[in-house]
Amino acid sequence: MPLTIALIGAAGKMGTRLSPNLRRAGHDVLYCEQGDAGLARLREQGLEPTPATEAVPHADLTILAVPDAAIRAVSADLVPLAAPGAAVLLLDPAAAAAGEVALRDDLHYVVCHPCHPPLFGGQPGETRDWFGGISAPQDIVIALLQGSEEALARAGSVCRAMFAPVREAHRITVQQMALLEPAMAEVVAASAAVLMGQALEEAVKAGVPEPAARAFMLGHAQIPLAIVFGAIDSPFSDAAQVAVRWGTERVVQPDWRRVFEPESVREVIDRMLHPEAQA
User: Per CATH, which fold does 4-172 belong to?
Assistant: First the structure.
């Protein structure tokens, strides 16, 4: 059933990615932005902006497609305007897990995040859909922060549409979603990716030509990932296992698994939501 949707942050990175799929699904989307630059970007896309103060009271679902650090202020401003029984959709678990979302007892709150197309998904062609929502199938994770199962189902159908094509929607809790991001995907995986880039830089500093180092790194990076995640039926060589053990002892903190402990997850989320306090 088509819904009236207030898309807050419609001209931002996430809002821009979501808009075409929401339109294709037949929903009545009200595009909300503030500031001359955001309003200009909307009009460049041929979209007519609606003030959030007008859109939210008429919306069945309000999507907060704004940066994590802005959720507290934006939700405090807009949640009081929502009609009773409406739903609020968050696209990241950080603010919800930290209790920084303005709540009302008569509203429903859902959190959703894309898994993005898998590394070994077998996308055809040269043009890769990195984030999903265009052509490559992906999964999503979804959690009910507050409200009814019926509201979750309605929001879930919107999530499937805006991140389409979606293979499966995994129902988890908000706290479990925070373990996936930031703990698993950003604190560990993104840090490891940055470390790999820095390792390439070190090889170049040591005299290896950059094209050779880059080709070698990107070619070799996919092999251990394929082995570890079962994409290929091949073990590490005996020599590689020795190198992995030696490298782990020197590169990885022995107590790195602490990043999944609740206090560590709370700490990194607090730093994400309040970057000004870290300056």
Answer: Rossmann fold (3.40.50)
